[in-house]
Structure formats: C-alpha cells, structure tokens
C-alpha cells in the first residue's frame, strides 16, 4: 500500500483490508509512522512516542472491528501502564511520570484491535479550548499551520485531519471533542454521561460532565468505536441504558423526520462570527432539504448563569487536582503554568455552600432541557463561535502576567473571584467556545458535524444536542448529513 492510498481510508476501511490480508498491521503502522515523520514536525500533534509498544502489538493476533489500525491516545487520562504521560504539565513531564495501570477506556480500545503508537498534545490538564502548553508547545492546525487545532483534544484532532491516523482518542469536559472537531473539520461525538468508562481509579470526571470517546473522519468509525467502548464497569456510578441495536447498525437507517430547534446567538452574550452564523444557516437549509423541520428557538436557560456555574465547578475541581498533585509529587508553583495557578486560586475560593449551589443548578438546567426536548428532537447551534484562532491569539496577555504573579506570591489571588471579575473571567474564557458547556453540565450527548468551510478553507462545525442516551439519533442524522454532503474528500485539500 502506498501512503497516498492509506490517506483515503477510514479506520473500518483499513481494518477490512487487514482482515482480507491485502495489507498487514505492520505495513499500516509503517505508513502511519511515515506520515507522522513527514507532518508532525510542523503540527506538533504527537508528543510522546510509543513505537516499541506498537511494533510488538503488530506481531500479535489482533481481533476486533479496528484490528491492525494505527491509533493515538490523548495525553490526558488515557493511560498505558509502564508508559509516560504528562497531562500537558511541565512538572509531570519533568519527573517522567509513568502510569501504573491502563485506563479502562484504553483497555476497551485495545479490545477493538487498534495499534497505539503515541500520545497526543493537550493543554495543561485539559483546562483550555486551545492546545498551547508550555510543556510541549502549540499544536498547529493542518488546514492552516498559523492556526491552532483547538483543545483540549487538539493533538488528536490535528493528527486525524492530517491523515496520520484515521481516528484517535479524545475526551470532552467542556467541549474538548467538539471544539477541535469544529476547528479541524472532523466528526466529534460527546456521548451521554456514563456512556463510556472512567475507571479504574475514577467513577466519573467532574460529576459526569466529562466523557471520553474518539475523533474521526467518518461517522461510522465513531459509531463502531462506541459499540466497543460503551457500558458500565465496576467503578461506574450507574448503568446507562444500552441501545436497542448496535450504533453501527443504527446508522444504516435514516432518522425519522426530526423537529430541530436552532440558534446562532451566544448564550453568554458574546460575539458570534459571520462564519459561525453562516455555518448554521447552511446546515439549516441542508436539513430542510432532507425533510426535517427547523424552528429558531432556544431553551429557557440563563446562559451566563450556566457558564458561571460551569466555570466555578470546573475551577474548583481543578484547584483540588492541583493540590493533590502538589502533595503526591512535591510539586511547586513553578511546575505549573501561570494560567493554571490563577484558575486554581480562583477555584480555591469557592465555599462548600457555593459548590453545592452550583451542582443543584446543574439539575435545574437538565430539567429545563428535558422540557425543551418535549417540543423538539434536537438542538442545533454553532460548535464554536469562530473558526480556529491563530496560535498565540488567546494566550494570557503579557501585561497580565506580572499582576497574576504578584497576586499569587502575596496569597491574594482570591481577589480574582470578587465582584464583576467573575463574569469577566467567564466571558474571557468562553467567548470563543460558548456553545459546548450546556451538553456537559446536563450530561446530554452532542456532536460537531463538519459541513462548512469558509473562504479561507477553514472549517467550522455544526453542533447538535440530543436528549439523554440518544446517541443513536445523533449518529443516524450525522450519517444522513454525511451522505447528503460528503466531507471525506475534503481532507485531500490538506497539504503539509
């Protein structure tokens, strides 16, 4: 097989060739490594190689729907026993932290037959919607290397779009699958709370807001991998209802005629680009041509209040994580990025009463979405407020750094959490990506579908949110949209 041929296949397509003995898993790995050698120096998508592990695995009798297919995992929670992981953090990179056991999601991916040969770039602890960690440097977008690939699954998105692998591990706690999917022109599904596992050391992440899955070029790859990974484990808090058929079987049938609400307004009152508005309007027309009913409407939710509750819980959780790492590894402030220290300081000021109040509000937002879905089958918005920002565009301004350093040194970083600064922090952090947190807080499944490219050939995804446990409805619609407006040939336009 030639590299040019390798680039034309999705994961299931490559696995079929392996099954028919038209190509071997070792040949596929060599092609993936070749593509990585050609492109990764420019992309900075893969930051920790696992070549020895991959070469050994190609000699095994692999089984599963992706047997022999090259794969990459995100350098955050997706751990392999005996291999380093940094979580995008300079401190963990410095001490060469080694995982002691596999994450359960990794075990299930392994059962699908994949061949993992590296870990992908991510912002420090996944706390940003862009991938520019101090530990590893910026991850570049293959559509335009001056732009970022998004976060926190930015390295995985960049690698898939560039054709290094047909699919890669990802995770989504505030949009971290859908944001890079939008920026890199990929299909990205965030499953429902509890659909995929977090064990063995965790029952769930951030009260179920965060969930793990993959980034893919095709809908069927996402469906097939969810078939392999979904379902509870011993660490799970509850058992989510299983689908009536496999997801791969479900997408063989078109969805029923759907009633879909749509909006292009930022829920936090920030600017939405012309590209994002155009992307949704394009999708609306496409959906109407397929027989679906589209109505402009929004849930009865205070978007700024939801964002505030999300940020407060998120930063509080992060503050706890940072303290745990400091205690376990005797880390100092210098081991972490200034942004991270500031966000942790903000989170540390949250009282127990405030925290519980925020979590109670999460339940209210879920109730409001359930009422909304009494009237509609799906909710459509832009996945992101704009196309991918340029690298460095949303970094912490230089003038703010000495102020933050002084506040942290004096132990007065709590001042960040006072007065109107909270709302400003919310808007500054989420203005690029105000649409994705709703699905995380409510635990609802959501996806970004690549249906729009602007005049500069930069993609921007359309986000769909569905009722709880309705991944099959999302995947069916995505497959219908993929058939109506195929996007796989778009990746041929990427030249690195």
In terms of topology, how is this protein built?
Blueprint: H1 3-6, H2 11-19, H3 25-43, E1 46-49, H4 51-57, E2 70-74, H5 90-94, H6 104-111, E3 115-120, E4 140-141, E5 144-148, H7 154-161, E6 167-172, H8 178-184, E7 187-190, E8 211-216, H9 219-229, H10 247-250, E9 259-262, H11 274-289, E10 293-296, H12 303-329, H13 338-348, H14 352-372, E11 378-382, H15 400-409, H16 421-430, H17 437-442, E12 446-449, E13 462-465, H18 471-484
Parallel strand pairs: 2-3, 9-10, 9-11
Antiparallel strand pairs: 1-3, 4-5, 6-8, 7-8, 7-12, 11-13, 12-13
Task: Describe what you observe in this structure.
The chain has a single domain (3-301, 377-385, 431-493), classed as Amidase signature (AS) domain (Amidase signature (AS) enzymes, Alpha-Beta Complex), CATH 3.90.1300.10. The strands form three sheets. It has an eight-stranded mixed sheet, sandwiched between helices. α12 crosses α14, α12 crosses α16 (421-430) and α13 (338-348) crosses α15. With 496 residues, it is of the alpha+beta class. The chain has helices at 3-6, 11-19, 25-43, 51-57, 90-94, 104-111, 154-161, 178-184, 219-229, 247-250, 274-289, 303-329, 338-348, 352-372, 400-409, 421-430, 437-442, 471-484, and strands spanning 46-49, 70-74, 115-120, 140-141, 144-148, 167-172, 187-190, 211-216, 259-262, 293-296, 378-382, 446-449, 462-465. It has 18 helices and 13 strands. α11 links the parallel β9 (259-262) and β10 (293-296).
């Amino acid at each position: 097989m030639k590299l040019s041929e390798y680039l034309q296949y999705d994961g299931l397509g490559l696995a079929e060739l392996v099954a028919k003995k038209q190509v071997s898993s070792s040949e596929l790995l060599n092609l993936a490594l070749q593509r990585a050698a050609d492109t990764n120096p420019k992309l900075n998508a893969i930051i920790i190689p696992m070549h020895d592990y991959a070469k050994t695995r190609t000699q095994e009798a692999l089984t599963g729907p992706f047997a022999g297919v090259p794969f990459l995992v995100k350098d955050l929670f997706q751990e392999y026993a005996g291999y380093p992981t940094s979580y995008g953090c300079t401190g963990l990179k410095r001490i060469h932290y080694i995982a002691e056991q596999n994450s359960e999601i990794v075990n299930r991916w392994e059962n699908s037959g994949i061949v993992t040969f590296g870990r992908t770039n991510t912002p420090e602890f996944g706390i940003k919607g862009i991938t520019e960690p101090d530990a590893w440097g910026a991850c570049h977008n293959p559509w335009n290397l001056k732009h970022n690939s998004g976060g926190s699954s930015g390295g995985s998105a960049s690698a898939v779009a560039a054709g290094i692998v047909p699919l890669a591990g990802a995770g989504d706690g505030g949009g971290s699958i859908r944001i890079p999917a939008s920026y890199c022109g990929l299909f990205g599904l965030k499953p429902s709370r509890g659909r995929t596992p977090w064990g063995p050391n965790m029952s769930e992440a951030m009260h179920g807001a965060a969930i793990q899955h993959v980034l893919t070029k095709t809908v069927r790859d996402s469906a097939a991998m969810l078939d392999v990974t979904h379902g509870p484990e011993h660490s799970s808090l509850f058992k989510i209802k299983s689908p009536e058929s496999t997801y791969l079987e479900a997408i063989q049938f078109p969805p029923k005629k759907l009633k879909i609400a749509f909006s292009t307004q930022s829920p936090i009152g920030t600017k939405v680009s012309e590209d994002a508005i155009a992307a949704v309007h394009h999708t609306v027309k496409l959906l109407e041509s397929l027989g679906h009913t589209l109505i402009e409407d929004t849930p009865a939710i205070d978007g700024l209040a939801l964002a505030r509750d999300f940020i407060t819980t998120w930063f509080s959780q992060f503050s706890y994580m940072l303290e745990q790492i400091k205690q376990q590894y005797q880390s100092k402030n210098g081991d972490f990025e200034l942004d991270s220290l500031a966000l942790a300081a903000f989170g540390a000021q949250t009282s127990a009463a405030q925290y519980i109040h925020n979590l109670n509000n999460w339940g209210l937002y879920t109730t409001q979405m359930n009422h909304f879905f009494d009237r509609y089958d799906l909710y459509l918005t832009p996945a992101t407020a704009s196309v991918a920002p340029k690298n460095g565009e949303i970094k912490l301004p230089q003038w703010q750094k000495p102020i933050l350093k002084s506040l942290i040194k004096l132990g007065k970083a709590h001042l960040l959490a006072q007065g109107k600064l909270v709302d400003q922090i919310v808007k500054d952090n989420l203005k690029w990506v105000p649409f994705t947190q709703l699905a995380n807080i409510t635990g609802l499944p959501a996806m970004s579908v690549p249906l729009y490219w602007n005049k500069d050939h930069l993609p921007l995804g359309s986000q769909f949110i569905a009722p709880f446990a309705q991944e099959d409805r999302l995947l069916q619609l995505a497959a219908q949209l993929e058939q109506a407006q195929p996007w796989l040939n778009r990746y041929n336009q990427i030249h690195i």
